[in-house]
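Checked the freezer inventory, then went back to the computational side. Two predictions to log before the end of the day. The first one is the construct we discussed on Monday; recording sequence and tokens without edits.
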Amino acid sequence: VVATASGGASELVLDGVTGVLTPVGEVDALASAVARLAGDSALRRAMGEAGRERIRSVFSREGYLDKMARLFERAAQGRQAGGAR
């Protein structure tokens, strides 16, 4: 992935790990990133694999359910420690 560092892309893409983020409006940086990845199949493959793993671990149903369970556990512990609110 090559994207500008704004909006959802900056939340989803880990710069240098799952893709390349470039500054908004810097066309030369965007072109350079595309050229860099176009010429490096090993880097593309590594970033693609890292991106797939990130989606599986962070955005999967199981990952979401695990995060929600931890959130509810923390909320319940806070109520137990601080009494009824």
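The second is the one RB wanted added to the comparison set:
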Amino acid sequence: MNKGVASNLTTNRRIVLIGSMGVYEKILSIAERLNVLGINTIVPEAEGGAVQQLSLFDFESFKRRVSFAYLRKIRDPRTYCVFAINQDLHGMPDYIGPNTFAEIAVAFAQSKKIYLYQSIPEAYCEELSAWRGIQLRGSLDKLITDFRTDCMVENAQLRLLD
């Protein structure tokens, strides 16, 4: 899609990207690619080096605050789907960690679509298949097409100017 066409489409819907902090750079990269196409994204807050200096009590407090805030973004009516960036990590193919799985469960409970960057990991095959997790196998094409079909509308003001 060329840039001119993307500028004629608007939506208040967005995609919430989720995943392990071990793939944070990939999350940011994918968000940037989607944003260029006019698709709004939400990414997790970077933990940064300062978190490593927190006491256990302060770290747990930080994690609770960040987790609650992100779960609110997932539950938000503007959220179209969650997109789990599940790359091979920690020697496990298609890795989904416990926090990411919890975020997927919240999305399912809110009737949000669930997309997986790679495939469904064996450990969660039954649940994610039943929850209709969509495996992208490294390609964003289906996600982009689904989002455009389900969420994007032509901006009526721009049509009047044509």
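For RB: The longest helix spans residues 56-75. The first strand starts at residue 9 and ends at 10. Let me know if you want it refolded.
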